[in-house]
Amino acid sequence: MSSIGAVLSSLFLTVALPNEIVPMGIGPVGAVALVPVLIGVYRTTRWRVAARTGALFGALSTALSNYWLAFFGEFSVWTIGGTILGYAAYNYVLFGYLFHLSREPRFRAVRIATLWAAYEYLKSVGFLAYPWGLIAYPGANWLPLAQIVELTGVWGLSWLMAFLNASVAELLASPGRPGAFAPPRAPAVAELPAPPGPPARDKWLTVTAALLLVAVGASFGAARLAREIPVRQAFEVLLVQQNVDSWAPGRFEDALRRAQQLTTDGVDEHGPPDLVVWSETAMRRPYLENGSYYDAYPADEPFSRFIERTGVPLVTGTPVRAGASPDFMNGALLIAPDGTAGVPYGKQQLVPFAESIPFYERDGVKRFFREVVGVYGTWVPGTEAVLFETAGVRFGTPICFEDAFGYVLRAMANGGADLFVNLTNNSWSRQRSAQTQHFAAARLRAIETRRPLVRGTNSGLSAVIDHRGRLRAEAPMFRSTVLAATVEIPEPVTTLYMRIGDLLGRAFVAVSILLTAIVAFRRRAT
Are 194 and 176 in contact (CB under 8 A)? Predict the structure, then answer.
């Protein structure tokens, strides 16, 4: 029965998240997506069964919702395989803890939600951080409810959605009978009797409390959506979606030529914008160190001549040297019409084992990743939130999946950013769900900081998101095109999340550790 619950929850979560059939996912399904697997945890008598159930859920839900990782270049077997195995292991541990915290029915849904939110925080920080598939994302589909992240960050929404799931599971789980599944001897740590279910009245009170919290959160959000924040200025952007991967062998000059032509067409049609946006690594050769190349290529119109003729500042992704070292960062540059560029930004949160590999400088490690895995080089991380400025607007440029990390954009906002311009190249994924899942995570950053977010991508989803998380303009995915849009820059505000950061996520971790210690102490005492 536990395995069936894991399979059902994996399917429900996949449908709730952005997917190939429903681009933004079916948000309401997220309110019950975890219910089947949690019922299995409530009913089982052995922690190993619960842990194996979690491993199955972790592996299957990851494979179903993140299957597009299988298209990650020559080493895709490592990206999809490693991710599935990793989340099977994570959930094995998680569900072992869920089992122990669920043995006492009193306030069980609160404990489950706290541990789940702690898990989602831990999986989203550090070297292995990968904030995809959070239970918060289906809840964010309801824009009034999503507004609470201004106060709590995404972790408050994770907790609320997990609490709703846990309370519904509590309601639907059959009433337990003390010792009904227990062996005649005293149970070992690995085998504990299913706890008696709480009275029906308590179950309904728990569900009512969850629904009341959702209503309070949505009411707060509705009030925030209705409140006007004064607009300081209108900022015109031209997003260039060339849909040519510059990293594909022999395609760099093609990609550069396509980006220049699209830019020219866009400026001719819509007039000169305040800023032209190209995607991540649109300029694969380091711009600051390859002046002679950009003076000569593309052959029909070299880049240096193009940027001068266009007469508009351009922000683009390009490798940039990390100080005086021989290493490079996955970077961003603001290039002026005269071809000059200021201080670059270097991506701070690197993709583990793709952009950054521990001990890669050692010959054995380097040889393994080059000859076996197919990774031939790595980036070094940037160390600060460099901002750019043009037309009176200061903006930060989170690169690739950095816009899924609240701490990255929070630092930029606290440093004075009026706007975020994300530079992304997800063209390798070939799947719409990869693009929309990234978008679902990114738009919460606009709400957390009350700053608009522009997404300049190679293949999609190129879009403009306002400071309320509303989609204002978008370009069709996997098409060579441009998107000309006006971004309303509001007067800057300082949200609670900007002040406290991820304090709530860390608090959930601390409380989970404390609850686990209390449970262990009580067990030893008995």
Answer: yes
